[in-house]
From TrEMBL:
Keywords: Repeat, RNA-binding
Stored Pfam families: RRM_1
Name the record gives this protein: RRM domain-containing protein
GO MF annotations in UniProt: RNA binding
Species this protein is from: Gossypium tomentosum (Hawaiian cotton)
Cited SMART domains: RRM, RRM_1
Database matches in Gene3D superfamilies: 3.30.70.330
Database matches in SUPFAM superfamilies: RNA-binding domain, RBD
Keyword Repeat: yes
Top-level taxon of the source organism: Eukaryota
Ranges where the RRM domain occurs: 30-108, 118-190, 209-286, 312-389
CDD domains for the chain: RRM2_I_PABPs, RRM3_I_PABPs, RRM4_I_PABPs
Length: 480
């Protein structure tokens, strides 16, 4: 197992002990979750391994219902909490089929895991640190509900992991003591876990050292950029990006030693003019951060535009190909003052048969809708409706479909065939050359047409009022 060496930059009250105890657990369940199982591990192996610690009530390796392949985890149940706690202490991270297993108490309340309560995130971990080393490092701060190193498809560490305690106090204590410490000669970050949605909503609150600057003059050099930004703090590196021929791409990066200096430089230089060029200066972002910011900005602009034209903009479809912008404007101009009018076209310029018309007041738009919806233009009836954003249309359609109830289809209960008197009963065989008995088909029901046996009257309820294909004499319905 990997050994963890924690090096402190400053005095820390109390050493970080390496222990696998579970210090003052507030709950003592009898069910254990067993993860990181090799796909070859069976129920019998799990029962035998955990049965050596104490009598086991039940075990189960969870499998895919379609293929029967192991999902890599299972459950073990004991009679009392003491046996479960002892099994967790003795067997956690022990190899089973040459792969260390990971055990924790089975959490019956899924909301606790989903809420992220007392869950911390650790990154910049040395690749040699495994689940056990991480667990041993953090176990001294309190009872651990879950502990895991994130790995790739080959089982190699990705350099980050997660630890969830049973209370916030233990999590905060671990953050205070270990954040910024050196573990195996690498400075780690330890902080509260944030879900993706929360991380994306607070990118600007994170401190940064690297600054991005664009709209530079093509003659601006690295030294000139360093001179301008150097007035705001100590700089560790500066570069103007250039192409293969050495020509400036008119943007660059400046890295400050101190994050506060970087923030001051952004505030002071963003929007300033240098050599008739207005600079943009901001936090250097990853591609994913830029894409998220641009997407959020675009969606906000679309929402503002939609709100601005709420009740004023009409959507028209089923337009004849001969109708262009001018003809559409002429058709709707009698209802009021139009602010815009457009027929939608594909890249080759051919009409898509739809368009938009915007009025200056909601009353004018309502009047146009009432008069023009369904009106025959050329040879097509127009469809006119308030314009909606794609998300609004999707939500409206989902609401409509959710209110629709499927039609109840009467069930058809199979019935035993009825044999006429004199025919062999169930279990009897027919003699060679004997004609098979006449079988009375099931009673009429949904999708069945009652057939008549000569000499017998029809029985059962009347045929329901539904369409049933006629069957000619001597023919059978398809599929029978």
């Amino acid at each position: 197992m990997a050994q963890v060496q924690v090096q402190h930059h400053a005095p820390v009250s109390g050493p970080i002990s390496v222990a696998s105890g579970h210090g003052g657990a507030q709950f003592m369940p009898t069910s254990l979750y067993v993860g990181d199982l090799d796909v070859s591990v069976t129920d019998e192996q799990l029962y035998q391994t955990f049965g050596e610690v104490a009598p086991v009530v039940s075990v189960r390796v969870c499998r895919d219902t379609a293929t029967g392949r192991s999902l890599g985890y299972g459950y073990v149940n004991y009679n009392n909490p003491r046996d479960a706690a002892r099994a967790l202490d003795l067997l956690n991270f022990t190899p089973m089929n040459n792969k260390p297993i990971r055990i924790m108490y089975s959490q019956r309340d899924p909301s606790l895991c989903k809420s992220g309560t007392a869950n911390i995130f650790i990154k910049n971990l040395d690749k040699s640190i495994d689940h056990k080393a991480l667990h041993d490092t953090f176990s001294s701060f309190g009872n651990i509900l879950s502990c895991k190193i994130s790995t790739d498809g080959l089982g190699q560490s990705k350099g980050y992991g997660f630890v969830q305690f049973d209370n916030e106090e233990s999590a905060q204590n671990a953050i205070d003591k270990l954040n910024g410490m050196l573990i195996n000669d690498k400075q780690v970050y330890v902080g509260h876990f944030l879900c993706k949605h929360e991380r994306e909503t607070v990118p600007n609150k994170v401190k940064f050292n690297n600054v991005y600057v664009k709209n530079l003059s093509d003659t601006t050099t690295d030294e000139e950029l360093k001179t301008v930004f150097g007035e705001h703090g100590e700089i560790t590196s500066v570069v103007v990006m250039r192409d293969a021929d050495g020509k400036s791409k008119c943007f660059g990066f400046v890295n400050f030693e101190n994050a506060d200096d970087a923030a001051r430089a952004v505030e002071a230089l963003n929007g300033k003019k240098f050599e008739d060029k207005k600079w943009y200066v901001g936090k250097a972002q990853k591609k994913s951060e830029r894409e998220h910011e641009l997407k959020a900005r675009f969606e906000q602009n679309m929402k503002e535009a939609s709100d601005k034209f709420q009740g004023l903009n009409l959507y028209i479809k089923n337009l004849d190909d001969s109708i262009g912008d001018e003809k559409l404007k002429k058709m709707f101009s009698e209802f009021g003052n139009m602010t815009s009018c457009k027929v939608m076209r594909d890249p080759s310029g051919i009409s898509k048969g739809s368009g938009f018309v915007a009025f200056s007041t909601p009353e004018e738009a309502f009047r146009a809708l009432a008069e023009m919806n369904g009106k025959m233009i050329v040879s097509n009836p127009l469809y006119v409706a308030p314009a909606q954003r794609k998300e609004e249309r999707r939500a409206q359609l989902q609401a409509q479909f959710s209110q629709m109830r499927p039609l109840a289809i009467p069930s058809v209960t199979p019935r035993m065939p009825v044999y006429p008197s004199g025919a062999p009963g169930l279990g009897q065989q027919f003699l060679y050359g004997q004609a098979p008995p006449t079988v009375i088909p099931p009673q009429a029901g949904f999708g069945y047409q009652q057939q008549l046996v000569p000499g017998m009257r029809p029985v059962g309820p009347p045929m329901p009022n539904c369409f049933v294909p006629m069957v000619q004499q001597g023919q059978c319905p398809r599929g029978r």
